[in-house]
Amino acid sequence: MSEVPKDAIKCLDKGFVRLVDSMGGDDAIVQAARVSYGKGTSKVSQDRGLIRYLMRHRHTTPFEMVEFKFHCKMPIFVARQWVRHRTANINEYSLRYSEARDEFYYPDPKNIEFQSALNMQGRMGEVPDDLKQKVKDYFKEISERSFEIYSELNDAGVARELARAILPVNLYTEWYWKNDLHNLLHFIGLRSDSHAQYEIRVFSDAMAESVKAAAPIAWEAYQDYVIEGLRFSKIEQSLLEKKLPNRVIDDISEDLAYQLTASLHFNKPRDKNDLFLLYQKQGGSDSNEDFNLKWNSGEIQIGNVRELREFKEKLVKLKK
Ligand SMILES: Cc1cc2nc3c(=O)[nH]c(=O)nc-3n(C[C@H](O)[C@H](O)[C@H](O)COP(=O)(O)OP(=O)(O)OC[C@H]3O[C@@H](n4cnc5c(N)ncnc54)[C@H](O)[C@@H]3O)c2cc1C
């Protein structure tokens, strides 16, 4: 089996993730999306706005135009979780055809913890040194002994496809794994999450590096809208509608009117005398004097016009 290649990211004690090939990046997403939305102009800021719009509205197919192919080496118990992601194309090292290598995962002592009492699928709490040592010894003992037996059966001419069944799931395997950006982001969203098992998280984090480099805008949008963004259920929304005072919503709407004015002015500069009117059109209710004071404060942020308008619509819905 492969040693850790020079251009790979080392994962766990003997594993790795190596980007073998990739096709496209942010440009390919925009290119595909413009087939649906028409050509238009394609300034970088507009491309960013388009990618963010697609992500926000779960228009996912343009993200499938970007592809990544990785060569990965991981313990079999990690591969068991990984393979649940059905949209990938996989070609794995065959233990029917080739002999197993003496390569087993031994956890780092800092990752040997107690079973979590709060999360049935997790670990927490420092394990005393003597128990850590016992865990390490057992891992070593079972790995070495099973490999001895495997080798003996192999040498005796027993079929490899049967002899392999004696090996434990901390044995390393490796594969080529190809997936598109949409499904890879979904994978990373699930497997880089703190609820995922540590041993698969390190591989997911390693693949995330390739995504960040090839499609930084899509990566940022995924973090903003999917990972960090909040969705409210119908029940939660109705609670917000009931409990959120109108004055709070009005305050936010007022801020939005300023932000919208500044963003529209940034995209297409207006005459100074037209700004107050533009602000009023965005729903602003301050006096002309207050408007001038705030406008000149330098505190108004610029955002994406479409996104700000969508936010405004959501706020209107929350108002009693
Ligand atoms: C923290 C964590 C704990 C988990 N615990 C368990 C567990 O205890 N037991 C267990 O069995 N699994 C468990 N899983 C695995 C989990 O249930 C999913 O199988 C795995 O995360 C793959 O997700 P997926 O189906 O969305 O991904 P993919 O298979 O990559 O699919 C991506 C998307 O494509 C669509 N899709 C793909 N194939 C089909 C299909 N055949 N039909 C319809 N839609 C499809 C779905 O929309 C899906 O979300 C766990 C996963 C995580 C992250």
Q: What attributes does this structure have?
A:
320 residues, Gyrase A, domain 2, 2 domains, two-stranded antiparallel sheet, 13 helices, 7 strands, binds flavin-adenine dinucleotide
Description of the structure:
A hairpin with a 7-residue loop joins strand 5 and strand 6. The chain is α+β, with helices and mostly antiparallel strands and 320 residues long. It has a five-stranded antiparallel beta sheet. The chain has a two-stranded antiparallel ribbon with strand order 5-6. The radius of gyration is 27 Å and the shape is elongated. The protein has two domains: 219 residues, Gyrase A, domain 2, CATH 3.30.1360; 85 residues, no CATH class. The protein is built from 13 helices and seven strands. The site of flavin-adenine dinucleotide has 10 residues, from helix 6.
Chemical compounds bound to the protein? flavin-adenine dinucleotide
Number of domains: 2
Strand content: 5-15%
What would you call the shape? elongated
Q: Give the integer mean of the pLDDT values.
A: 94
SSE ordering? EEHHEHEEEHHEHHHHHHHH
| Architecture per CATH nomenclature, i.e. the level-2 architecture of the largest domain | 2-Layer Sandwich
* Helix percentage: 40-55%
Termini separation: 64 Å
Low-confidence stretches: none
What is the number of beta strands? 7
CATH top level assignment of the largest domain: Alpha Beta
Rounded to an integer, what's the Rg over CA atoms? 27 Å
CATH topology of the largest domain: Gyrase A, domain 2
Q: Widest sheet: strand order?
A: 1-2-3-7-4
**Tally of separate helices:** 13
Characterize the main sheet. 5 strands, antiparallel
What structural class is derived from the secondary structure elements? alpha+beta
